[in-house]
Write a structure and sequence with these properties.
Elements: H1 7-10, E1 27-32, H2 36-47, E2 51-57, H3 63-70, H4 83-88, E3 96-99, H5 107-115, E4 119-123, H6 130-143, E5 147-150, H7 157-168, E6 174-182, H8 205-208, H9 210-220, E7 226-234, H10 244-249, H11 254-257, E8 263-270, E9 274-281, E10 292-296, E11 299-303, E12 317-323, E13 326-332, H12 341-355, H13 363-382, E14 386-387
Parallel strand pairs: 1-2, 1-3, 3-4, 4-5, 6-9
Antiparallel strand pairs: 6-10, 7-8, 7-14, 8-9, 10-11, 11-12, 12-13
Length: about 400
Amino acid sequence: MADKSMDGLNTFTDQGNESKVDTSKKMRVAIIGCGWIAENHVKSLLKQPDVEIVAGADLIPGKAASFMEKFGVEGAKTDYASHKELLADKSLKLDAVSICTYNRQHAGPAIDALNAGVHVLLEKPFTVTLDEAVEVMRAEKKSGKVLSIGFQPRMDANMKKIKEIVESGALGQIYYIQTGGGRRRGIPTPFGTTFIEDETAGIGALGDIGCYSLDMVLNAIGYPKPLTVSGYKSAFFGKDPNYSGYKKEKAAEYAQKFGVDDFAAAFVRLEGGIVLDFRIAWAMNLDTPGDTIIMGTKGSLRIPSTQCWNGTVGGPMKIYHEVAGSQVETEIPVITMKEGLFDLKIRTFLDACKNGTPAPVPSSQILYNQAIIDGIAKSAEAGREIEVVIPEI
């Protein structure tokens, strides 16, 4: 039985809001870390009419130069031995940097850039540990510059609709959330071992795609503080030389290099009496660990899972509730986006830098996301529930 009384939730269209970009002043941007994810950054930055890519740096000699040449970025300086040299080059007159390094190199360059008075777009995950995130935020607070974390799913209209539904009160008081997702076979090794070695990645599926599924629900409910975490993680597939992905890539030796998680799960208690049931996978013998569910006293929302986390929803969402004594379901049609989420991530960051407005994905929220990830890792290692303690910024 469909409910016709909630037309405000049943009829959605993409309005395609367009804003005019002021091109009178070019934003001078550098890229730190010129690997795979940086390709998405440079492609999007090149679309922006108010951006000039002036420099790039990478730990591998010559990589930044070949990267800029590949994408036709002319005049960008790349003869730097490190990101520190780039940031010390006053001739660049930098406004902002995109930090696209591997996970364990997120915190250092972000802190150095903020200390140099430069705005920062930091790829996800925020950092590897909670303590690193705190140090980055202390540098942010001191600098007064914009720090935005690279969570482009936030820009998806369907994600925004989830938050609107919760904030409308249609679900009542939220008390239980189930979320997660993953891939049946999807350990990210086509680009080498950066994602799977502990010395570069630090965390696996937990930070790579787990941070997104956490953000989807935590942002919707206003990012309550995490209180306790009981976590679990494993690496059965990543450490198996017979894993199908390794065979396809003829790289059975990757199993010995695998030093992170390929599956994680947790039970998290949040402020406000909310409990969060979480699971995430790079590989599993299952099509999905389940849909995302937000349960409330007036209604519950089911968000269909995707085959592989792609930043949106897997189909029309449904609200299960009661109207005039009847148990009904309200279907929420999928909203089609006209703009790419990555382009929106870049554009909203640039606008915040230019206009002096808050970061589109603020560190103050993602700190709690990172605290949960950190808590899961620590709890899994300890084999027991732990209290989440967040240092003062």
